[in-house]
Structures are given as structure tokens and as C-alpha cells.
Amino acid sequence: MFHLITANPEITIAQQTDMLLQAIVKEADLITPDGIGIVIASKRKGDPISERVTGYDLLLRLLERGNEQGWSFYFLGTDEETNLKAVEEMRSRYPNVVVAGRHNGFFSEDKEKLILNEIQQSKPDVLIIAMGAPYTDKWIYKNKRKLDGVKVVFGVGGSLDVIAGKVKPTPPVWKTLNLEWLHRLLTVPVAKGQKSRWRRQSALPKFFYRAIIKK
């Protein structure tokens, strides 16, 4: 199983004090820079990264390629209504993609066993998880041995919410100005049980100081 992590400043700061998350990041097969802060910091450190790669953009590219190749996907996460709408939308846009299965991100321990069994039986080429960071990557790490049949797995944050139409995509001008994070902060509602987006974004000044000013 190939575990991909899309790292943003929040994950970067959290893994400095969360030893489990630090181990997960070190063992990941590939880490992509999901955030303009990561790109800026890389330039300051003398090892520049050319551009950021968001989980949403990566998901769309994989779906496009999967539509050409007939890849299978399993979608796990977000609420039931949003998950269902997102999968229906992807089936419409990418008719040759095989939906190996889907389930919302709210389940009991007993239900989790059934979900893992379904994933083992269906052996999707790509397992997409939308249960929030860093919980998604910790869940993947915890169930690593039970996901052997999966080829690629990674978290996509709120990407399914965007595809389902629950959240509006970031306008191009915000992306051009590298202010996608600010657009989400101002417009995206916080799911029940999750931290306030303002609290989550408190990692940004810490990251800016440690990675860019302090190097």
C-alpha cells in the first residue's frame, strides 16, 4: 500500500509535538506540499519546491487518469448525504471509474470492521479518505496491515464536500493570490465535532515564525 500525505502548515506544526504523527510522516511513501507556506519555506531553506499540490487537485487528476484506465476507487468519509452526492457526481463526470465502495466517516468500532472487510474484499486501486487531518492519516496508519489490497491511499480533506456542491470551490483569483486558505477560513462551515477553523489556522503564525523567520 502506497501512503501519500498532502502536508500543510497545520500538519507540519502538529507533527513536531505529536510523536505518533511524526512517525507516520516519516514512514509515508510520498509527501506533497499542500500549502503556499510549505513552498515559501522550502525556498528559504535553499531546497525550493516549484509548486504546491493540493489534495483536491490531486484527487481530480487521479479521477481523470482513472477514467482513462478504468481504475477502481473507494470513498470513505464526510457525512452520508455528502458522500453519496459526491460519488454520484463523480460517476457522472468519470463514467469509466469503478466505484468499489463508499461509506460516510461516522461509524462505530463494529461498523469499522465491516468497512475494512469491504475494502479488503474490493481491493480498490485508490482509497480516498475524507475524515479530517490528522485523524485520516492516523486511521490509515492504524489499519495499515488491513489495507494491503489497496494500491494507493491518501486523505483529501474537504474535497468531497466541494465535489458534492456542499462547499463552493475556491475562485481562481483567490488561488492565483495563494489565498485559498483565507477563502476557506471565511466561507467553509465547520462540521460538528471539529475544531473551529480559526483555531486550526492558529498554526499558520507558528509555522511562519519557525519555518520562514527562524528557518
What does it look like?
- With 215 residues, the protein is of the alpha/beta class.
- It has helices spanning 9-14, 19-27, 36-44, 55-69, 80-93, 109-122, 135-142, 159-164, 172-176, 180-187, 197-200, 203-213; strands spanning 2-7, 30-33, 72-77, 98-103, 126-130, 152-155.
- Strands 2-1-6-5-3-4 form a 6-stranded parallel beta sheet, with helices on both faces.
At a glance:
With 215 residues, this protein is α/β, with parallel strands linked by helices.
Classify the beta-strand content into a percent band: 5-15%
CATH topology: the name is: Rossmann fold
Which strands sit side by side, in order, in the main sheet? 2-1-6-5-3-4
Number of domains: 1
Main β-sheet: number of strands, strand sense, barrel status? 6 strands, parallel
* N-to-C series of helices and strands: EHHEHHEHEHEHEHHHHH
Number of helices: 12
The CATH superfamily is known as PrpR receptor domain-like
Shape: globular
Instruction: Quote the average pLDDT.
Output: 85
Please give the alpha-carbon distance between the first and last residues: 34 Å
Low-confidence stretches: none
